[in-house]
């Protein structure tokens, strides 16, 4: 069987790390199986969906290394949804309801107060022609609910336990009792569609074989299987992974701006660090940075995904990024360094990369070489620095210059260890840390070193 999966974001904001988790699970699964990955924009909410967000999602996915085989927009497929709704209405499975949101909430509250589950009572099926006419005269428009197959053959008001089973590719055997659920609203009063019906129609018509998504959709899956069957469509396989939360246990949302893919990209993090953390957090595999999507696909094992929520720590993106950066060759970063105005060669990159948390950090070390520095010289070190300046070797300089110079300074001043090296480092770089000066000094050169020792 050829695998076809989809990622269906709503273009109503920027995607965040929580969105990327299902996108990556689907993408890596498709690549591992030699299948097809469909990017399908859930843009049926015309008021909130924006082209700029759709473009932003495409850019973020491309940066991550997710390259769709197909791109679809639900806003171009309303005719298919209309046909499906008509089919369900003709079968008596999609029925009109006229309650307002306030009326529905009062009913739910009464049910809770009486110790009953707040399940919709199918009052819409009891409406007479006269009652419908009254509602219409008031200007009310109906919303439309799908009648779940959870009742006896001839009485929709006699609900009976109706189990829907499926073998979840992540969580194993799953069961949902349709009698515990309300008939879902598929069409709003203004005629627009909620997510459910367009998603099912698209999955059927696009040949989606596997729907891999968050565990918050498990109850929905029972409902959706019933609608697939009512439409005479083939039911795909389902997989439900655990959700990412913040380190404090809160759910992620589009309001989590610090965790948006755009913000992580702008912070200079490596895409494979983001992908590795999004995929491996909450699994039995050690969280380590994969260098390629192929490598990450090899690490992904659905059977190793925990059933508990996975806590995401943004600091870990930085740790994984640093690991990747430290292992990068000059060829891998040359163009990025050039675009940042870093003219250093392979030798320079090899000297500074261990002190770079991101590739962008190389810029500050290059500016330390070619730019101006504010020397940090304590009052008690001024005489010592002046003595060291007088002993500075002539050029040419290489990796042995620092050792020769400090040896001479030690002999002249008697200083050693940190008391010898730290004042010189602070004077030359303005910093108490950084790449080894034996390697940096030849890049800085004698003239600039003399200026900074003044």
UniProtKB/TrEMBL annotation:
Keywords, in A-Z order: Aminoacyl-tRNA synthetase, ATP-binding, Cytoplasm, Ligase, Nucleotide-binding, Protein biosynthesis
A GO CC term attached to the entry: cytoplasm
Pfam families registered for this protein in UniProt: Anticodon_2 (PF19269), tRNA-synt_1c (PF00749)
Domain Glutamyl/glutaminyl-tRNA synthetase class Ib catalytic: from-to ranges: 3-315
Motif 'KMSKS' region per record, residues: 251-255
The keyword Ligase is annotated on this UniProt entry: yes
Top-level taxonomic group: Bacteria
Main subcellular localisation: cytoplasm
InterPro entries on file: aa-tRNA-synth_I_cd-bd, aa-tRNA-synth_I_codon-bd_sub2, aa-tRNA-synth_I_CS, aa_tRNA-synth_I_cd-bd_sf, Glu-tRNA-ligase_bac/mito, Glu/Gln-tRNA-synth, Glu/Gln-tRNA-synth_Ib_cat-dom, GluQ/Sye
Binding site for ATP: 254
Localization, UniProt: Cytoplasm
EC numbers for this chain: 6.1.1.17
Reaction it catalyzes: tRNA(Glu) + L-glutamate + ATP = L-glutamyl-tRNA(Glu) + AMP + diphosphate
Cross-referenced PROSITE patterns: AA_TRNA_LIGASE_I
Purpose: Catalyzes the attachment of glutamate to tRNA(Glu) in a two-step reaction: glutamate is first activated by ATP to form Glu-AMP and then transferred to the acceptor end of tRNA(Glu).
Family annotation (HAMAP family): Glu_tRNA_synth_type1 (MF_00022)
Family under the similarity heading: Belongs to the class-I aminoacyl-tRNA synthetase family. Glutamate--tRNA ligase type 1 subfamily.
Name recorded for this polypeptide: Glutamate--tRNA ligase
Organism field: Pseudovibrio axinellae
Source species taxonomy: Bacteria, Pseudomonadati, Pseudomonadota, Alphaproteobacteria, Hyphomicrobiales
């Amino acid at each position: 069987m050829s695998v076809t999966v989809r990622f269906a974001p709503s273009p109503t904001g920027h995607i965040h790390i929580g969105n990327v988790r299902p996108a990556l699970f689907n993408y890596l699964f498709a690549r591992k199986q030699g299948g097809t990955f469909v990017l399908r924009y859930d843009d049926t909410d015309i008021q909130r969906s924006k082209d700029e967000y759709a473009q932003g999602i495409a850019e973020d996915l491309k940066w991550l290394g997710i390259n769709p085989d197909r791109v679809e927009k639900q806003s171009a497929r309303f005719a298919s949804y209309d046909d499906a709704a008509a089919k369900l209405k003709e079968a008596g499975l999609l029925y009109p309801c006229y309650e307002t949101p306030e009326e529905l909430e009062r009913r739910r509250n009464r049910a809770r107060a009486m110790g009953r589950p707040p399940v919709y009572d199918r009052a819409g099926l009891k409406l007479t022609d006269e009652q419908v006419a009254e509602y219409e005269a008031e200007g009310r428009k109906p919303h439309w609910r799908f009648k779940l197959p959870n009742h006896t053959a001839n009485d929709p008001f006699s609900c009976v336990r109706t189990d829907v089973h499926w073998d979840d590719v992540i969580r194993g055997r799953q069961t949902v009792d349709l009698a515990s659920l309300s008939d879902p609203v598929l069409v709003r009063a203004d005629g627009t569609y909620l997510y459910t019906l367009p998603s099912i129609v698209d999955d059927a018509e696009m040949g989606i074989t596997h729907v891999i998504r968050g565990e918050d959709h498990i109850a929905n899956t029972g409902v959706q299987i019933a609608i697939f069957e009512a439409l005479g469509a083939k039911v795909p396989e389902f997989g439900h992974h655990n959700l990412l939360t913040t380190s404090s246990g809160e759910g992620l949302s589009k309001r989590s701006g610090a965790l948006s893919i755009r913000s992580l990209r702008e912070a200079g993090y490596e895409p494979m660090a983001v992908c590795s953390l999004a995929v491996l957090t909450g699994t039995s595999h050690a969280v380590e940075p994969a260098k390629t999507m192929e490598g990450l696909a090899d690490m992904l094992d659905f059977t190793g995904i925990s059933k508990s929520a996975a806590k995401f720590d943004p600091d870990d993106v930085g740790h994984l990024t640093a690991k990747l950066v430290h292992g990068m060759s000059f060829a891998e970063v040359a163009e990025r360094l050039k675009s940042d105005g870093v003219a250093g060669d392979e030798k320079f990159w090899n000297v500074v990369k261990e002190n770079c948390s991101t590739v962008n950090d190389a810029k500050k070390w290059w500016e330390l070489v070619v730019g101006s520095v504010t020397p940090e010289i304590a009052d008690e070190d001024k005489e010592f620095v002046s003595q060291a300046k007088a002993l500075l070797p002539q050029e040419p300089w290489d990796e042995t210059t620092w050792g020769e110079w400090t040896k001479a300074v030690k002999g002249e001043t008697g200083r050693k260890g940190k008391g010898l090296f730290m004042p010189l480092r602070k004077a030359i770089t303005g910093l108490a840390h950084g790449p080894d000066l034996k390697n940096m000094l030849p890049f800085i050169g004698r003239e600039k070193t003399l200026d900074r020792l003044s």
